[in-house]
Amino acid sequence: MTPAPATAPAAPAPPVMSARSAASGGPAGAVLGPLGPLGPLGPADVEAAAARIAGHVRRTPLLPGLPAPDLHRTGRRLLLKAEHLQYGGSFKLRGAANAVLALGARRIVTGSSGNHGIALARLAAALGAEVTVVLAGGAHPAKTALIRALGGQTVGVPGGVAERDERARALAEETGAVLVPSSDHELVVAGQGTVGLEILAEAPDVETVYVPTGGGGLLAGVCLAAYGHPVRVVGVEPAGTPRYARSLAAGHPVRLAPGDTVADGLRGQQPGAVPYPVIRDRVDDLVTVSDAEILAAAALLRRRGIEAEPSGAVALAGAMRAGRGTGRAVAVVSGGNTTAALTSAAAAATAATASRTDRTTHATRTTCATPTSHTTRSLLEETS
After folding, report:
1. CA separation for the pair 217, 266 (Å, rounded)
2. Is the bond preceding 69 in cis, omega lying within 30 degrees of 0?
3. What digits encode the pLDDT tens for the residues 248-268?
4. What is the mean pLDDT of residues 196-208?
């Protein structure tokens, strides 16, 4: 253990602790970012993110649970957090917007499985920024096409998520662009936590929240939002990529070989430095679900009229595996970027780009006024 300094620094804000840690008196460690210790994240960071991104994201609804005969498997009080209705088709816009707006980024690089890249490309188009998205092998071609239709640049790399993220870091260093990771960033995690804030505000009596888990940004964010609440937070991972379950069992982050799953957005190989300690010290349970269970959950959602991509159905699969509950539960439907939705969005983005070009040409001839925040929101809505 490193000896304490001769002069003790000012006491930091209380770290995030799980119910188990609090009961034992054991503190959680500071959350360490990729550039060094930035201090512990907490609920105040999520509140700040909510205020920052309010004009750029949708407050998505809580939808009633599944109709009979499916209720016997999921519990009669299950609600669905409809992040598939978010601009860009997934929760990813929240963390992306918080990071880009806080950093004032105008040249952005990221590594993404698709949805984070879509979110950043959408923001870049609205804010007049540039974005380059590095995609690993096996990335959904329709997601790649939408990123390009939104004006983003894409770079493909062989290998898995680890190789993708290494290339993104190198590219940011080479070009001087701002690196905005898909999950391993304090501002991204805080932005994703606004999903949890909305759940707790609309359903304060919720007893369990099921959260799909890939890189861990959404799960960590919900854990932050849930700090001080008695709600159980359950992370749900695909059985082929259980990086958080394996890491918590080992007591330290472990790196898995590239895995395969129908949930293409949840193929992370190792926990991030930012999400891991938050999840370690607050999550109540981690469960894994098979591809068959994920597809079954997606089919149930379709019968409910919800077109969720496989990654978006993972939390529901976890709730179904847990069986019927006695209290109110929420499963986060994290994304709706199916092939059909992506194709439609790409067509809309192409049309919106042409429309913006026409408006810009006309505006140049008549005025040099700076676009307002209303204009920015309108641009986001055009391809939602």
Report:
1. 11
2. yes
3. 999 999 998 877 889 887 887
4. 96
Alpha-carbon gap, residue 301 to 375, rounded angstroms: 34
Tell whether the torsion through CA atoms of 51, 373, 58 and 151 is positive or negative.
negative
Could you give the CA distance from residue 261 to residue 216 in angstroms, rounded to a whole number? Answer: 16
Q: Which of 315, 297, 322 is nearest to 307 (CA)?
A: 297
Structure tokens at 105: 């980024």
Please tell me which residue in 18, 90, 112, 113 is annotated as part of the active site: 113
The pTM of this model reads 0.81
- Joined tokens for residue 15: 């770290």
Query: Could you give the dihedral angle defined by the CA atoms of residues 153, 89, 344 and 314, in that order, rounded to the nearest 10 degrees?
Result: 110
Which H, E and C letters describe the chain, residue by residue?
Answer: CCCCCCCCCCCCCCCCCCHHHHHHCCCCCCCEECCEECCCCCHHHHHHHHHHHCCCCCCCCEEECCCCCCHHHHCCCEEEEEHHHCHHHECHHHHHHHHHHHHCCCEEEEECCCHHHHHHHHHHHHHCCEEEEEEECCCCHHHHHHHHHCCCEEEEECCCHHHHHHHHHHHHHHHCCEECCCCCCHHHHHHHCHHHHHHHHHCCCCCEEEEECCCCHHHHHHHHHCCCCCCEEEEEEECCCCHHHHHHHHCCCCCCCCCCCCCHHHCCCCCCCCHHHHHHHHCCEEEEECHHHHHHHHHHHHHCCCCCCHHHHHHHHHHHHHCCCCCCEEEEECECCCHHHHHHHHHHHHHHHHHHHHHHHHHHHHCCCCCCHHHHHHHHHHCC
Tokens of 7: 């002069």
CA-to-CA distance for 52 and 299, rounded, in angstroms? 36
Q: Among the options 18, 81, 92, 247, which is catalytic?
A: 92
C-alpha span between 263 and 265 (Å, rounded): 6
Answer yes or no: are the C-beta atoms of 197 and 50 closer than 8 Å: yes
Residue 82: strand pairing partners:
333
Verify whether residue 92 is a known catalytic residue.
yes
pLDDT digits (tens, 9 = 90+) for 271-324: 999 999 999 999 999 999 999 999 999 999 999 899 999 999 999 999 998 876
